[in-house]
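pasting for ref. prot 1 ->
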Amino acid sequence: LRITLACSVILLILAPVSADTSTGLTYMDSTWSNNNAEDGSIIAIDSENTVLASVHDDKVFLYDMSNQEKIVSFKMERVSAMEFSPDGKYLAINKDSTPDDDENVKVIDMSSLSLIQNGAISSDVSKDISWSADGESLAIQSGETNVKLYRKSDLSVTDTLTGSHNTEVTCIDHSQNETIMTGDNLGRFLFWENAIAGDYREYGEGLIDCMFAPNGADILLLGENGNIKSSTIEGAVKNAMNILGAKKVIFSQSGNKIHVAVETNEF
């Protein structure tokens, strides 16, 4: 009997930033979609660790993390990214456009477990979604090189971050003070204040993830070759490591540890 895990090949490693090797794997639990469903590789967990969202067979499933039971599912064509708002009240999803629905961006209201009426148009393959700290707006890749800012209430476009990336944007994140960081697949990253870009910087390899630390003063960058660096916004490197197969990095709430999602055949 084949159990389809919500995070089939994604394993969580809890690694102190000061250490060169991980402290080991932490297996928590698994969820059911159905025996024949495609494995899930896109997941999101709300800030209270109460709901897990996972994508299988062009559907977004929501699971209750207290008992791993399915709450509800929504039909979504080829989801490329999703993210819960900071308060966990909304789940933003970027999906493929279809002949019947050209809106890529959808938002689920978690209180009513229903889609909000308005959607928006972005890119079919946007790889990242970032909510503002107050949960009132979200940033999503639009086209290859631009990022659009959307108002949560009606998903209207409030601004566009443009003119600095000349290749695909692969990661986006908001700081607590609303600075936005964007990175691309050639390793260029930069910071935006009020939709105005600062000078770009080079990471040395294509970026697949980037985020601000909870303190707002440090950042975390993950390159396509598994190189991970934590540094100050000014660029002073605090720690660096290499984890082959790393796909995503997340700061702990305290900011002094990181979680690394790894895809590998060796575990």
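and prot 2 ->
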Amino acid sequence: MLYIVATPIGNLEDISLRQAKTIADSDILLSEDTRSAQKIIIAIKEKFGLITKKNLHIQSFYKENEFQITYKILKELGAGKDIVLISESGLPLISDPGGFLVKEVIKRNIQFTVIPGPTALTTALVHSGFNSKNFMFIGFLPKKNTGIRKLINNFKDINKIRKDLTIIFYESIHRINNTLKIFDELIPDSNICICREMTKKFEEIIRGKPKDLMNRKYKGEITVVLSC
């Protein structure tokens, strides 16, 4: 059976007993980052005293090899293996690999389940204090400025119909300042909440207008919440 298992977005103490048991009982562990997988294995041993199977195989599973690995996994599922998919952090498939695998599993009527847990997008939404009744998650922003500008104009059109819509997205630390400059140009009165390194030691939540935030230096993983 296939298990889609959420893992902590930063603080390993957030792992649940159900997540830990599912990972410990698996035959194959698909992981976007095998180093993260090893940290999870150590955490479940330290927190719950659970030890993985001796023959557990940790398989690297990321965007570039997902297509190739998926068909090997389908054969293993057909042979009755218990397979767990985790991402580097949070819930798999949310801007992470796994979508193709799940589609193929559904197509073949292979049983799978989801072991839920935290995601950066909902954690950031609550941190922001913005409207949480109507929100849209758009993953990562386009890399090109023209794409960002087009997206902002779409937000404006949507906001005319759906007032108080909150937008959540992920952004690279290398592009965040440029993104904020575009926001300052096109939607200067918008409210921004930048959530950095959530649940980790150096967690930082910063709120303000684009002009207040666009000249800062940012490190680590970033989730941005926007209220136009």
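The CA atoms of residues 31 and 60 lie 5 Å apart.
The longest strand covers residues 135-140.
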